[in-house]
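Lecture 7 notes: from sequence to structure.
We start with the chain below.
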Amino acid sequence: MKPLFLFRHIKCEGPGYLAEVLDRLEVPYRLIAIDRKEAVPVDIEDCSGLVFMGGPMSVNDPLPWIEQELALIRAAADRQLPVLGHCLGGQLIGKALGGEVTKNRVREIGWHAVSKADNATAADWLDGQPERMNLFHWHGETFSIPAGAEVILENAHCPHQAFALDNILALQCHVEMTAPMVHEWAALYRVELDDPAPSVQTAAEMTADLDERITAAQQVAGHLYRRWLQPMLAKGRSPA
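Predicted structure tokens for the same chain:
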């Protein structure tokens, strides 16, 4: 099986729990560290899919690697390769597929409930999962839903929490979180917590009962990751 190309845009926003799932399932991946000035591959010939992590930048910023990543997403979609994005990564997917990324009406930071959307795509991707899930968030922008895709997760703070199209999954929420990542972000990004609101938790609020929250969120994340990987694993492990 060719490796996944996994793009990290800032050191503190790595693959987290996703890396644990990939290692457990023996799925190879190549980390491309944009934060270390690593070059974006020129094509997708040597990968089995694309994964994009988060970052504090905007997909609308004039950064050269953004256009390069958008081009790879479009190429993967044309070839029907799987693509997965988290927060900024989900916004990259949305923009690459013809959607828009704009300012959300509120900043959403901390643990907030999301709900399954009422459609067949959500039922497929979230089969067996609860109707409401408490997931982690840290964003001020949001994506529109590209043509052909459907919302699968939503909430009052940000109606577009995730969308799916074939084997493309774009997440606004951060399902990749581990407990150390929550503590690290709360410290590194503490300036964003100076003005708490119903949609913005304090560091104390987001780190309270953390082990219990992480366990529940990783159950959802594991389900989504396995569902996203399923076609790839079936193809990669079928007899030649």
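Points to note: The CA atoms of residues 154 and 160 lie 5 Å apart. The chain has one domain: 4-236.
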